[in-house]
Amino acid sequence: MKHIGAVGKRIVEEEQKGSKRAGYGEYLLKNLSGHLTRELGKGYTESNLRNFRQFYIVFSEEKQIRYAVRSELSWAHYRLLMRVDNPLARSYYMNEAAESGWGSRTLERQISSHYYERLLTSKNKKTVMITTKKDSKIQSVRPVDFIKDPYVLDFLGLEEDRRHQEKDIEQAILNQLQVFLLELGRGFTFVSRQHRISTESKDFYVDLVFYNYILKCFVLIDLKVGELTHQDIGQMDMYVRSTFRSKH
User: What's the CA gap between 219 and 185, in Å, rounded?
Assistant: First the structure.
């Protein structure tokens, strides 16, 4: 990225020198593209040079490029990040992609589904700001801070105009488990499906059980296709109290 930043800086500085000359920017890009291609080989088309210029403009506004970018990410990641106008959101996506191992396709989906904005509008906005800092302490994160509203499950491929049963949604999640874990957020791992909980009179089954190794707690998901009732809430409370609280 350092080389891309250097090329971008060169373009910006040259454009500033000849800014009063009509069409100078396009002439500069065409001329520089030919020069760099002859000297260094492929990859220096005019469209790429425009991206290099944008890369320098975007990240030089925040810090020096060598401090602002993450070496773990590819040029494909940065082409996506440059489209994010909000500097806080861009920083969050960059750090989250690097630390969570997001590929460029995953990053593109998280940006298009407004992952940052959904997390920000959840119950506690403070956590999003904390996680954009490299020296953040994970001890300051609480379970409530990991909840996004809403979760976007478009990757399940379920038809919108069809009424699905809970078992259909459960199976679709399991078929796309890796993507679902990324949608949940950092630190989640799958534990089991249809986890049995026995009482003195009856057996109950939790649809999906996950564990978050950052929060050190289990996450229970009981799928409902209708309106949530007080009975549903009471049943979930029973799940937590009867089995999982002792393991928390």
Answer: 12
Token pair listed for 242 = 């009867």
Task: Residue 102: give the domain boundaries.
Answer: 70-142
User: Rounded to whole angstroms, how far apart are CA atoms 100 and 182?
Assistant: 9
Residue 108 lies in a domain: yes
Separation of alpha carbons 53 and 102, rounded Å: 25
Domain boundary residue, one of 142, 165, 190: 142
For residue 235, which of 199, 188, 189 has the smallest C-alpha distance?
Answer: 199
22-65 per-position pLDDT tens digit:
456 676 777 787 877 777 777 788 788 888 888 888 877 555 45
Do residues 130 and 176 both lie within one domain? no
For residue 152, give the H/E element and its range: none
CA–CA distances in Å: residue 51 to residues 46, 75, 193, 246: 9, 10, 45, 54
